[in-house]
Specification:
Elements: E1 2-8, E2 12-19, E3 24-25, E4 30-33, H1 40-53, E5 60-64, E6 68-69, E7 72-73, H2 88-96, E8 100-104, H3 105-116, E9 125-131, E10 135-141, E11 144-146, E12 155-156, E13 159-160, H4 161-165, H5 167-172, H6 177-195, E14 199-203, H7 209-215, E15 224-227, H8 234-242
Parallel strand pairs: 1-5, 5-8, 9-14, 14-15
Antiparallel strand pairs: 1-2, 2-3, 2-4, 6-7, 9-10, 10-11, 12-13
The chain binds beta-D-glucopyranose.
């Protein structure tokens, strides 16, 4: 079945139709800069634009960087506070006329990874950790998602882990890869201490091979550590796959 996947991020909103059987994009993806301020109404207009661009009338799957409980947004750490308590599935269905399913961005990217990427056919306890502006997490047991874990907000050094070890912090503080990796290692240690996963998959922009080469050798975990494979398209693919 084909579903239009849309990935809402802090800087860009990206969409493409996806074949949910094999996770392949059916057309070149469209990227539109995230409006500023990124209020629910402004973002809904962009979602509508993407739907119109692909002349889509079918099912739509959409990510958002927040906790989403049955279509209701509950948190807004890195997005406009106006999202809190927005029934986002109804909002997007209303403007597009399509059936829209919305889920957390890390959960979506994790789903893509488990079905079509580095987590393919992995059993046991798998953590997918996506590192970008924030840190997002998705937890799977025998391929089954346990939704809405917010492990970027674990406390480290008196602050949320994403304030200490995200890629945004690395860039803002001008950390070398080695220095950043030391911080990220502390985060991985905490995850391992609390949950003892079998496998940890690292996603987000830092999972590109050229970036992985910069820091991978500084990390060490008891769990098997793998870079994600789908990079920038994981959110789109996972949103589409989750929608059916
Ligand atoms: C949000 C999560 C999101 C993560 C990655 C965090 O700030 O709380 O819901 O998955 O950023 O975007």
């Amino acid at each position: 079945m084909n579903v239009l996947g849309i990935d809402i991020g802090g800087t860009g909103i990206k969409g493409a139709p996806v074949n949910t059987v094999d996770g392949v994009l059916l057309a070149e993806r469209l990227r539109i800069p995230t409006p500023n301020p990124a209020t629910p109404e402004a973002v809904a207009e962009v979602v509508k634009e993407i739907v119109h661009h692909f002349e889509w009338t079918g099912h739509v799957g959409c990510t958002i960087p927040a906790r989403v409980e049955h279509g209701l947004v509950r948190t807004a750490a890195n997005i406009h506070k106006g999202w809190i308590d927005t029934q986002v599935d109804s909002l997007f269905s209303g403007v597009t006329g399509c059936r829209v399913t919305v889920l957390n961005d890390a959960d979506a990217a994790g789903i893509a990874s488990m079905r079509f990427g580095a987590g393919r056919s992995l059993d046991g306890l798998v953590f997918f950790i996506t590192v970008g502006t924030g840190i997002g997490s998705a937890m799977f047991y025998n391929q089954q998602l346990i939704p809405n874990t917010e492990l970027g907000h674990l406390r480290l050094k008196g602050m949320a882990a994403e304030e200490y070890a995200s890629n945004r912090v690395r860039e803002q503080e001008g950390l070398t890869w080695k220095k950043w990796a030391r911080r990220f290692q502390k985060y991985l240690d905490r995850i391992e201490f609390l949950f003892a996963p079998d496998t940890i998959i690292i996603g987000g922009g830092i999972s590109r091979p050229a970036k992985v080469a910069e820091y991978w050798s500084y990390l060490s975990t008891r769990a098997e550590l793998r870079p994600a494979e789908l990079e920038n398209e994981a959110g789109i693919i996972g949103a589409a796959a989750a929608a059916i």
